[in-house]
Amino acid sequence: MMLIKPENHRHSGEECNDDSRIKILDPSILFRINNRVWCQNDGKQGQDNGQKHNLLKQFFNQYRRYFSLYKELLRFSFQNFIVYRAHFINSVFATVGWGAFQFIWIELLTFRTRSAFGWSKNELVVLAISYTIMMGILHFFFSHNMSRLSRIIDKGELDFLLLKPVDSQFLVSFYIQNYPNLVRVILGITLLFVYLHITHLTFTLIGWIGFICFIFFGVTLLYSLWMFYCTFLIWFPRLTNIIDFLFTIDGMARYPSEMIKKLNPIILFFILPFTLSVATPVKVLVRGSFDGDIIYLIIISVGMSVVSRLFWLYALRHYTSASS
Fold first, then answer.
1. At a CB cut-off of 8 Å and minimum separation 6, what does 104 contact?
2. CB 203: neighbour CB atoms within 10 A?
3. Which domain holds residue 62?
4. 56: helix, strand or coil
C-alpha cells in the first residue's frame, strides 16, 4: 500500500506544519485500511455462522478487527512521521527541553525548603518525572487527534468518519499517533530509574504494581476530560482555543494535589481531577499510600469515561453535517 503524499509535496528532510502532515493520512487511506481489515475478518466470521449467538466469540472477533485497524493506523502514522526528519528532531529537542524544565521547577520550589505541601524534594522529583511520562502517553495517543477535531468538523471530514463501519469515537481518538512523544515517555522512564539509583530510593513491589495500575486510571481520566471538553466542538467548531485551555490545565497536574485543594471550590472542581491523575499514582509508589485519593481517582476516571462517551453520542445526535 502506497503512502498518499500531501499537496505541495516537500523534500523529506524539510519540516512541515501540522496541517500538511495530516494530509498524508487522507480519508481514502482509511477507506482502504478499513476494507482490508474488515474483509480479512469477514471470511473468518462467515465460517462461524453456526456460532453467531456466541457473545464471547463475537466480542473477540470485534476486538481483532479494531486491533488490526489500529495496527494499520500506527503504521501509517509512523510513515507520516518518518517523512519529515527535521520535524522529529525539533520535537525531540522540545521534549527534552520540557523535561529539563520540570527539574528547574523543582529546584526553584525547594530552594529554601526541603519540602512543600507535605512532599519532600525526592517525592516532588518523582512527581515531575511521572508527569512527563503520563503527558507523553496522553500526547502520543490522544491530544493530536483532539487538536485536529475542530478542523475535521469545520471542513466536513467528520461526515466521512461517521459513514465508516467503525466506532466514531475510536476513529476520532486514535486516527493519528504523535510518535515524538514516545521519546518523552522513554526519557521519563529512564530518568525515573536513574534518579532512583542515584538517590538510593527503593520502593515495594506492591508500590510498583499500584503505580502502573493507577497510571492507567490517570491516563483514562485525562483522556475522558479531553474528550468531554472537545465534544463541545460539535456545536462550536471554531472554538479552537479550548485545546489551548486543556494544554494549560494539564500543566496543573505537575503540582501536588494538597496544594490544589487549598484553592477556591469552583476552581477546585475543574482542576482537582487533573492533579489526582498524576499525584495519586506517585503517592502509591513513594509512600505506599492507598488512601482516599485512590477511591476518588477510580470513581472519577470510570465516571468520566461513561459521561464523556454518553456526551459524545448525544452530541452526534445533534450534529448537522457540513452539507446542511
1. none
2. 16
3. 17-47+54-83
4. helix
